Amino acid sequence: MPVKRFPGGGRVNPGGVSNEVDQIEIFDWVFGADSWVDKQTMGNMSLWGIFGADSGKNGVYTYGRRNKEQPFTMNLEYVLDVDEIGAVATVEGVTIISYRDGTDFGVKAVDPDNKDQGIWEGLEFRAPIKKAEQITEFSHVEVFMDELPVGCSVYFYYQKNKSGDWIQAYTADGNVAFTTTGGKKATFRIGSEMDIYEPRIIMTPSGNTTPEIFRIRTYFN
Fold it and tell me: Per-residue pLDDT tens for 34-47?
C-alpha cells in the first residue's frame, strides 16, 4: 500500500525505511523451521525516518498492523527533530537511527527500558445539525483505560473550531490531570459551545510503564 504524504509533510531517504523485526538474520534458515520465517519474529510494521516536516512531526513513523484483523495505522513512534535522518534499522529488536543536525552527525538507539510521553490526537468531529440558532455544547469526556500504573498520569485537551490552540480540560475534581493509581475511568469537563471539535490525550509514563487508553466517550448538552 503506497504512502503518499506524512502528517506535516517531510521526506525519507532510501535507507530510512526498514521492517520491524527482532532478528537481523530474518532470511537465514533456522533448524527445525517449516519455512524461512517460521521461527522468526515479525513485527508486521514498517519504519520510516521522516525529516523536513513541520516542527514536532519529524522522527520515526510506524505504518501497518500487527494482527490481520486490525486496521492499518500510522503512528509517530519516536519524535526526532533534526535536519536529516539517514538510515533506520532494527537489530535484535532495537531500532537504530542515524542522523545529521547541522554539522553534527550521530546515531541514536531506542531505549527499551524507558518510555517517553505519548500523545494521541483524534480527527475533526463536526457537531450534529440542529436548529439554526443553536450551537452544540460539549459537556464532558470520559476516558476509559487499563488500571493506571503508579506514577503515571493522563491529560486531556481539545481544539475548538480549528483555532490551532489546544485548550486544557480539567478533571471532575478540578485537577489538571488524572493520577489515581489503579483508576480505570477519568472524567474531564469541557462545557464549551463549538461546531468543530478535536480531542487530544497526553499520557505521561513512569519508567517503562505507561497509561493504556481503550476509548473515549464525549457527551453533549
Answer: 555 544 455 678 89
- Among 71, 91, 109, residue at a domain's last position: 109
Report helix, strand or coil for 67: coil
Are 161 and 195 spatial neighbours (Cβ–Cβ below 8 Å)? yes
Residue type present at position 152:
C
Would residue 4 count as lying in a domain?
Answer: no
The verdict on 55 and 144 lying in the same domain is no
* Residue 6: all three cell numbers together: 506524512
- Write out pLDDT tens, residues 69-96: 778 888 898 899 999 999 998 887 788 9
Question: pTM for this structure?
Answer: 0.76
Give the whole-angstrom CA distance, residue 155 versus residue 175: 10
Maximum separation of any 2 CA atoms in the chain, in Å: 72
DSSP assignment letter at 134: -
Domain total of the chain: 2
- Could you tell me the three cell numbers for 62? 510506524
Q: Are 58 and 82 in contact (CB under 8 A)?
A: yes
Residue among 142, 118, 117, 126 at smallest CA distance from 198: 126
**Which is it for the CA torsion 189, 192, 193, 198, positive or negative?**
negative
Nearest to 141 by CA among 87, 220, 51, 195: 220
Question: Can you tell me the distance from the alpha carbon of 79 to that of 75, in angstroms, rounded to the nearest whole number?
Answer: 10
Owner of C-alpha cell 463549538: 194
| Rounded distance between C-alpha atoms, residue 185 and residue 144, angstroms | 5
Query: Which residue range forms the structural domain that includes residue 162?
Result: 118-220
